[in-house]
Amino acid sequence: MTDRILEIGQAGLESTDQRVKKLMDNMVGAQIPGYRKSEAVVRGFPLELESASQKLSPVKPQTEGSFYSNVPGALVKTGNQLDLALTGDGYFVLNGPWGEGLTRDGRFQIDKDGRLLTVAGNFPVMGKNGPIVITPSSVVEFTQEGEVKVDGVVVDSLRVVQPESADTLEPVSGNFFKRKDAKAVLSEIENPRVIQGYVESSNVSIIDGMMEMLLEQRLYNLNAKIITTRDASLAKAMELGRPTQ
């Protein structure tokens, strides 16, 4: 029979480990434009207590998935004519190997064929007429409404979409997302707010991340102490239960 206290302590170590991994990912992604902070979702105590009262499971933390914060990051001026930021809702649309992708990372570049690509991953950026193509060495302007002007002539408009809810997206990486279900609705934003020469920074705070890391270390040590204390108690009980010579 599994000891409940040891099981709870082990579950605590595992959930803490998952949260620390998320924190490490966030710290690494803190310098990536458009990166979204992620957190491990741990099943709440009230639900665990209810399950325990019905003898479905012991009261222990359980990691159920990940949550990505949609709080926008600060805008950073770069002066690059191919850097774009969205000041309102929505995501840029790109064409990835998995299909249609979404991102807030507005760092773009033009390849030798004139295709507008993401700097991270080299994925084609989508306009309302398909992949955006720009004549190399031309003067490029992106209006606040998302129109793409090449040498003063409008050639296309950026596709900017908004999912019906954040729950309909799943991460490909910290700054690229895709739909969980192909049937999930993406609404076209007809009048997006696009700013040329800026990028949106990550929404990760390094200082907050360091403080959270210290807290997780304390929780880890507490769960480890629960296990060692329980193990010592069981060993002592086994010793007392042995027959004397």
Task: Describe this protein's structure.
The structure is a single chain. This protein has a six-stranded antiparallel β-sheet, with no helix packed on it. Strands 11-12-13 form a three-stranded antiparallel β-sheet, with no helix packed on it. With 245 residues, it is of the alpha+beta class. Residues 45-53 have low confidence and may be disordered. The two termini are 28 Å apart. Helices cover 29% and strands 29% of the residues. It is elongated. β11 (140-142) and β12 (147-150) form a beta hairpin. It folds into two domains: 4-70 and 204-237; 75-200, no CATH class. The chain is built from three helices and 19 strands.
Number of helices: 3
* Proportion in helices: 25-40%
User: How would you sum up the global shape?
Assistant: elongated
The end-to-end span amounts to 28 Å
Helix/strand/pairing class, anyone? alpha+beta
Q: In total, how many domains does the architecture comprise?
A: 2
Unreliable parts:
45-53
The number of E-state strands comes to 19
- Strand arrangement within the widest β-sheet reads 15-16-6-5-14-17
Average predicted confidence as pLDDT: 83
Beta-strand share of residues: 25-35%
Order of helices and strands: HEHEEEEEEEEEEEEEEEEEEH
Cα radius of gyration in angstroms? 25 Å
Biggest sheet record: 6 strands, antiparallel
